[in-house]
Design goal:
The complex is a heterotrimer, with one copy of chain A and two copies of chain B.
Chain A: H1 9-14, H2 28-38, H3 49-65, H4 72-89, H5 100-125, E1 144-152, H6 155-169, H7 184-195, E2 202-203, H8 214-233, E3 237-241, E4 248-252
Antiparallel strand pairs in A: 2-4, 3-4
Helix pairs in contact in A: 2-3, 2-5, 3-4, 4-5, 7-8
Chain B: H1 6-17, E1 22-23, H2 24-31, H3 37-48, E2 53-58, E3 61-66, H4 71-74, E4 75-83, H5 86-98, E5 101-102, H6 103-110, H7 116-124, E6 128-133, E7 141-145, H8 147-152, H9 164-169, H10 178-191
Antiparallel strand pairs in B: 1-3, 2-3, 5-7, 6-7
Helix pairs in contact in B: 1-3, 5-7
């Protein structure tokens, strides 16, 4: 494909052969080389690398004559190009790798690529651009999505929460239920009265009150036993038991 | 759509691009004196009648705007379900059981302070409303539930709320892990 | 103008009201899933063809804009909305035609280092964005263009980039090494 070469402003200003000597006008040696290549007015694939090298070196020479400060990378490029030129002119040395032809071709490829992008950029910025060629609606009201929280809670959560609050903060009362017991005093009185003047042995259970309340019976048994011990201490009754856990007998002393 | 003539196209584009309404003389100054702006405006207004956007005139100035019946699409409200925090649920429950109740009373019942956001959320949800002031020193604001509260929770009246005895029977007054709960409550009270 | 159906009116109004281009899914999210957005867009684009404003698609997003042929009348001053330096233009072109591309790759094509600020300007304009890292040694950041780039330069997609097919066919988007190897192969083939 052919690329139409834009008139490079720097080159155009200085005419076809004489380049304006302004290093700052070029962004580095490659940029300058591309400008020089374009003065050959041929497809970049057809450019003469030798002519390009001549032009570049002549350009730097002129710049030097005008005592311009020349940036180091321009001089590095000049040295490299001088080397390339000598390689292209001298008989081919097979030992040298890469070959001067390869280097020249690579330079040419680089210039083609830079040129392609330069032209693509120019075509890009020349398109119908928003705010310059085409315009958007001047007064958009804007679309807004207002996110509103839809709060969720269910009745169970509500009731359970109230229960939790109530349980947490309700004053706590400790009720101790009254349990049926026979006090020691009652037991002493009862055992003493029932014992009377009996002189035959009787099991202690015979002294307990009737009724079906097991808890009360156990309490009465415990109290009556202690009462019996107390009455025995006072010498008012005698106790006997044949062995551990055997029935306990009492009688009046 | 019919093909508009060039005056119409220019007026259409100029009004569209302008960030403020334009009068006939604005348009003429912009587009040139030879353009029949008035006729173009009239034709355009006819073209756009009934569309999603309309060309309207206000006080001698013309502009495009979205059709008034579509105004609702400009501001779309989207509901996002969000779970009420535990502090929120408790506060709501206390208000429901004790209404009308002041903030200080809620805190006394809860045993934990409530953050400002908690009541705001309940009001935003439409479940709680300020219900006047208590005629006590400081005249604190008191809160009550709304009909929306009853509707949301499927209650026909507040009397439908289970009483303390019902709660006890349901085991909801059992002081399970009370210390742990209290800790949790305080921390989520901050986020309510 | 024919009377548009309600889907068309909604899409038309939404695109007018929106302050940025909208994709089909943006429109659907805003207008509801039941609206046939794609058909409405197609019909609207047809309605507006040839008018002073037109409906265009840029990178999957739609917006209304003034017709390009009216540019000379609408623009009051010919100044570019964002005056790009030559380096900026070239860098933008390289990113657009080669994306995704690393800074080193841009520098290799341009033959100079990218000065600080060149990429910043392009990113600030909303035309270029970092697009991850290349999984090569050093994991360099790579850059790509944005939907905003397509919209600004009036491109429906990157395939619309001026001359991109020709450039690709000519191998001018391939790295120098690759192009060189291809040439070597070609000449080897000739000799064989």
């Amino acid at each position: 494909m052919e690329f139409a070469f834009d008139e490079n402003p720097e080159v155009a200003a200085a005419g076809a052969d004489v380049l304006m000597l302004d290093i700052d006008g070029w962004e580095g040696p490659l940029d300058l080389l591309l400008a020089l290549a374009r003065t050959q007015k041929v497809d970049l694939r057809e450019i003469s690398i030798l002519a390009l090298v001549e032009q570049y070196l002549a350009f730097l020479n002129d710049a030097k004559a005008l005592k311009l400060e020349i940036a180091a990378d321009y001089l590095v490029m000049a040295a490299w190009l001088a080397y390339l030129k000598s390689g292209l002119l001298l008989p081919r040395d097979e030992a040298v790798d890469p070959s001067p032809e390869e280097l020249a071709l690579r330079l040419q490829l680089r210039l083609q690529r830079l040129n392609a992008m330069r032209e693509a950029g120019a075509r890009l910025v020349a398109r119908d651009r928003i705010g310059r060629d085409v315009f958007l609606f001047g007064a958009p009201q804007g679309l807004r999505t207002v996110r509103k929280a839809a709060w969720e809670a269910d009745l169970y959560a509500l009731i359970a929460a109230y229960g939790a609050v109530t349980a947490r903060n309700r004053p706590v009362f400790h009720h101790v239920a009254r349990r049926p017991v026979m006090t020691l005093e009652a037991a002493i009185e009862r055992v003493a009265a029932m014992l009377g003047e009996r002189i035959e042995w009787r099991r202690i259970e015979a002294f307990l009150p009737g009724g079906t309340d097991e808890a009360y019976r156990r309490s009465a048994l415990a109290s009556s036993f202690v009462a019996a011990l107390e009455l025995a201490r006072q010498g008012r009754l005698d106790m006997k038991q044949d062995g551990a856990f055997a029935p306990l007998f009492i009688k009046a002393a | 759509m019919e093909k508009p003539d060039s005056a119409m196209r220019l007026v259409e584009a100029a009004l569209f691009a302008s960030d403020k309404p334009m009068s006939i003389s604005d348009l003429r100054a912009h587009l040139g004196e030879r353009i029949d702006v008035a006729t173009a405006l009239e034709l355009l207004a006819g073209d756009y009648a009934g569309r999603g956007i309309e060309l309207v005139e206000r006080g001698g100035r013309w502009h495009f705007q979205t059709a008034p019946d579509l105004a609702h699409i400009l501001r779309l409200e989207r509901e996002e379900p969000r779970k009420l925090s535990r502090a929120g649920v408790e506060t709501l429950a206390i208000i429901a059981y004790h209404e009308p109740v002041s903030r200080a009373e809620i805190e006394a019942i809860r045993g934990v302070q409530i953050s400002k956001g908690t009541l705001d959320v309940l009001m935003e949800a439409g479940w709680v409303r300020p219900a006047g002031r208590r005629e006590t020193p400081g005249r604190p604001l008191i809160y009550a539930t709304t009909p929306g509260f009853l509707a949301h929770f499927g209650l026909s009246s507040r009397r439908d709320l289970p009483g303390i005895d019902d709660l006890r029977a349901a085991g909801l007054l059992d002081p399970v892990d009370m210390a742990f709960d209290a800790l949790e409550l305080e921390s989520d009270g901050d986020n309510a």
